[in-house]
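Two proteins, back to back. First:
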Amino acid sequence: MLHALDRLDGELSIMLVDDAVIQTLNASYRGKDKPTDVLSFAMGEGEFGDVNPAILGDVVISVPTAVRQAKRAKREVFDEVTFLLAHGLLHLLGFDHETDEQDREMKKETRRLMKAALDTRPVRVQR
């Protein structure tokens, strides 16, 4: 995904957590006391956001929520987590979906990043 964004110097942390952890973070940082699928914490924002532009931030993904969403969408959990990572990464880079135009652009970029990531996925050999 970083290659597709021309951000090979980019650094981010990815945390895979359960619903309880993401609910605590969601309540603390967004004031929403419920689990969510993905949270992004951009390092490029705020008073010291320009200290190191290569450090993008943190993406936190709830695996149990991803599993539920994958079942509903009838897709692989790996693909759902990849989608959430792409979505979270775009938030780190300043993308948002507040307006219809922003939402269209974010969905387009999410699809592009997913394709880039999934096209490089190792092929599983059946034995």
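And the second protein:
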Amino acid sequence: MKRLFTTLLTILAVQNLAAEPKLFLGEFSRNRLDGWEHKRFKGETQYQLQNLDGVAVLKADSRAAGSGLFKEQRIDLQQTPFLNWSWRIGNRLTGLNEQSKTGDDYAARVYVVIKGGLAFWQTQAINYVWASNTAKDSVWPNAFAGDHAMMLALRGPEAPLNVWQSEKRNVRADLQKLVGEDFRFIDAVALMTDTDNGNGQVSAFYGDIWFSKD
């Protein structure tokens, strides 16, 4: 009887773990853009939900433009530190020095933001980027924001075109490593496909975005 009881507890624990909900920010597969707002910097990247291979995804098409979508939502990284998403790009942006202001364009990027409140200069961010000319796993400060916005190339020029890539990042650990502080909360998540500095053209697709405990 004791062994049976222990087995039942184990099964229930596994079921509860498997049923652990995802904290969705972008449910694009359900044709939803709830809470996402458009922010323009120069021109306007076109973002629209589109059916691709039988699944709704978010398509971004940028032509010498820089604008993004962002969603303000306070996330407790102690509870759900992992950011999950999938993405793919249709072409690369060639001939850019991505660490310079004139080359600060990316086929795709997803970033997390910690607001500085009234002290806006204390805002911090990590940009997870699909780089066209910088090697995978490279890290550098943003050309415009300096070390207040750290860039991390999750994909580089070696990544194949038109192929979905899945990402999973421990945001709290990345903030500790790249920013040097242990932040418990973030305030927003954004995505952007931009070509405004180099006057290029690129297309990208984004799948669902969510946070999880593991």
